[in-house]
Specification:
Helix content of chain B: 25-40%
Low-confidence stretches of chain B: none
CATH topology of the largest domain in chain B: Rossmann fold
Strand content of chain B: 15-25%
Helix content of chain A: 40-55%
Strand order of the largest sheet of chain B: 3-2-4-5-7-6-12
Number of domains of chain B: 2
Order of helices and strands of chain B: HEHEHEHEHHEHEHEEEEHEEHEHEHH
Strand content of chain A: 5-15%
Largest sheet of chain B: 7 strands, mixed
Structural class of chain A: alpha/beta
Radius of gyration of chain B: 20 Å
Radius of gyration of chain A: 18 Å
Largest sheet of chain A: 5 strands, parallel
Structural class of chain B: alpha/beta
CATH class of chain A: Alpha Beta
CATH architecture of chain A: 3-Layer(aba) Sandwich
Number of domains of chain A: 1
CATH topology of chain A: Rossmann fold
Strand order of the largest sheet of chain A: 1-2-3-5-4
Shape of chain A: globular
CATH superfamily of chain A: Thiamin diphosphate (ThDP)-binding fold, Pyr/PP domains
Oligomer: heterodimer
Mean pLDDT of chain B: 93
Mean pLDDT of chain A: 94
Number of helices of chain B: 13
Order of helices and strands of chain A: HHEHHEHEHHEHEHH
Chain lengths: 283, 345
């Protein structure tokens, strides 16, 4: 089995991939005049490592049985995942201009029926990890060695159903399940840590029986190491990577803005943000 | 709290007069449905699933700590490696069933109807129905089949589930139908919610040479004065009521409607259009949002204007107690159905 991402052997750096993901996301935001750009910019490095270092997939065959499954719980992060899938060649770049438009294959909240490569319908939070448990059980039944990845958010950890799935994954010893928590400490009404008592995240997952790692989600080397360790770990237990990310990462004037769930971007600022990005194009 | 509930709690306990003078104990959730004078079959769902699974390796079973109370334990004993005990966690049971279906399996997920319809609704609609996945949700204690009170009595599950697009809903009558419907829903490519009678389940439809067909209502016998349109075990009750009413010169036909959604509009409209009959729907469910209102709306849309009455549970939180008492009290026993129809003629 192919155990590395199609881009893993490429000369294109992960920094360049993350740059391209950020650029695709900004172009989609510009098309709509809105979008969850703060989240997309923040999680771009984690997605670059997912799609160009960790995941096994075939860009032209998103249903390939041997693929690693990547489940996006957080439907509003679709802009980020589309950006990664465009860079990966799963979605065509020319459809960027359709983002969020009528009849587009890229609606603003991610849905399985609309988009090649979108494994589940997200948006109602607290669903993804439970579905991931079922898919991981199914893969084991089929003796398919693929991994199931589930990207969820810190706010989503407030949903009780997430913790049902956390316990179930341990019960069934799902060593083929890797959860990725994008921890940007921001949910719809404010800071996640101010909404529900979020005790130190790492210890909580460890106490439930997971192999847990916490990393700076915008430190590419640290993220790569965490994915490598999650896949290579030999314990019969599920794995979680808690990625602490910074909203709007990479666009300083947006990073400095008061951060909210739905970051305000003025019409002329999309081009300004793209220009900043273009000046710092990595090799 | 209602005045009735308050007064029940605050007033001194007075034993109520029970049929035959005996005081009946609360009907537990494990109780089988009473059906005097009829043969019963043990665990028809569990045995049908075991039989099916012989040739269908895609079939797996999941439960949320209720295998014994949904007859899934029969499957678990026969195929331990295809059975998933998910613990007392309905959300992950439903989500995991969706995940297994995504990987090509046909999951049968069981719990009580109250827990599936109320607690797991969001997971059923978004993870399963929206994606049209072939998950079969099979739920015990439909309607008024336990004396444990509102926490266990799923009197509104059909009302909840009928609003869900893509979902097929089955309310089977007896052991014969549970066996046949289990096989039929396994072959159906989409999601299904099936109400389950478990334990020792009466054989009612055997004598009619009945064969369940998904989406089809069937006349069990004709009658010129009344047309019963019934689902679930209320079909058994109206068959018995029809016998009693014949003695009073009232000739009742019985249309059995096991598929609540999609409703067999053509058959219901055709039978109700045969003029001169009182149409009486009968369901083990609240009069709000179940078969009765579905049939009423169907007839209105089709322009069929006939006398119409509804037999069902009241739109209320029901009492705890013994099922025979409660079925009399709420109008779904044979005697109560018989008396209601007589009063309407």
């Amino acid at each position: 089995m192919n155990t590395s991402a199609p881009g893993a052997g490429s000369n294109v750096s992960l920094e360049r991939r993350a740059w391209a993901i950020r650029r695709n996301a900004l172009r989609m935001g510009e098309v709509q005049g809105q979008g969850y750009i703060g989240q997309a910019l923040g999680v771009a490095d984690v997605l670059a490592v997912s799609y160009f270092h960790a995941l096994s997939y075939r860009p032209g065959d998103p249903e390939w049985e041997g693929r690693d499954r990547f489940l996006l719980s957080i439907g509003h992060y679709a802009i980020a995942l589309y950006s990664a899938m465009i860079e990966a060649g799963i979605l065509p770049e020319e459809e960027i201009g359709t983002y969020g438009m009528d009849d587009s294959r890229m609606p603003m909240s991610g849905m399985a029926a609309y988009t090649p490569g979108m494994e589940i319908t997200g948006g109602s939070l607290g669903h993804g990890l439970g579905i991931a448990v079922g898919m991981a059980l199914g893969l084991k039944r089929k003796r398919n060695p693929a991994f199931v990845y589930n990207m969820l958010s810190d706010g989503e950890l407030g949903e009780g159903s997430t913790w049902e799935a956390v316990m179930s994954a341990v019960q069934w010893k799902l060593d083929n399940l890797i959860a990725i928590v994008d921890f940007n400490d921001q949910q719809a009404d404010g800071k996640s840590t101010a909404a529900l008592a979020q005790v130190p995240e790492l210890g909580r997952w460890q106490a439930f029986g997971w192999f847990a790692q916490e990393v700076d989600g915008n430190d590419m080397d640290a993220v790569v190491a965490a994915f490598d360790a999650a896949r290579a770990h030999d314990g019969a237990q599920p794995r979680v990577i808690i990625a602490k990310t910074k909203m709007c990462k990479g666009i300083p004037f947006l990073e400095d803005r008061e951060i909210t769930h739905f970051v305000r971007v003025e019409p002329e600022e999309w081009a300004k943000a793209l220009a900043i990005l273009d000046e710092e194009k990595p090799q | 709290m209602t005045d009735q509930a308050l007064s029940r709690r605050r007033s001194k306990y007075t034993p109520r007069a029970a049929p035959g003078g005996a005081r009946l104990a609360t009907s537990a959730m494990i109780a089988s449905l009473d059906a005097e004078g009829r043969e019963t079959v043990s665990a028809p769902f569990g045995h049908a699933l075991v039989d099916l699974a012989k040739d269908r390796e895609d079939i797996v079973g999941l439960t949320a700590d209720l295998s014994k109370y949904t007859d899934l334990h029969v499957f678990a004993e026969a195929y331990p490696d295809r059975f998933y005990q998910m613990g007392m966690a309905e959300a992950v049971m439903i989500s995991a069933a969706a995940g297994l279906a995504r990987e090509g399996f046909t999951p049968f997920a069981t719990t009580y109807a109250v827990f599936a319809a109320r607690r797991a609704y969001d997971f059923i609609i978004m993870a399963i129905a929206e994606e049209n996945l072939p998950v079969k949700i099979v739920c015990a204690l439909p309607g008024l089949t336990t004396g444990y009170g509102p926490s266990h009595q799923a009197t509104e599950d059909l009302a909840i589930m009928r609003g869900m697009p893509n979902l097929t809903i089955i309310d089977p009558c007896d052991a014969v139908e549970i066996d046949q419907a289990t096989r039929a829903i396994a072959d159906h490519p989409g999601p299904v919610y099936m109400r389950l009678l478990r334990g020792n389940v009466p054989d009612v439809l055997g004598e009619y040479g009945y064969q369940f067909k998904l989406g089809k209502a069937q006349m069990l016998h004709d009658g010129r004065d009344v047309l019963f349109v019934a689902s679930g075990f209320m079909t058994m009750r109206v068959l018995d009521a029809a016998k009693a009413l014949r003695g009073d010169g009232i000739d009742c036909g019985v249309l059995h409607v096991p598929t609540i959604k999609p409703l067999d509009v053509a058959t219901i409209v055709a039978e109700a259009s045969k003029g001169g009959r009182l149409v009486v729907t009968a369901e083990n469910h609240s009069v709000t949002g179940g078969l009765g209102e579905a049939v009423a709306a169907t007839l209105m849309r089709a322009g069929v204007h006939v006398p119409f009455r509804q037999i069902g549970l009241p739109d209320a939180f029901l009492d705890a107690g013994a099922l025979p008492t409660l079925h009399d009290q709420y109008g779904i026993s044979v005697d109560a159905v018989t008396a209601s129809v007589k009063s309407w003629m």
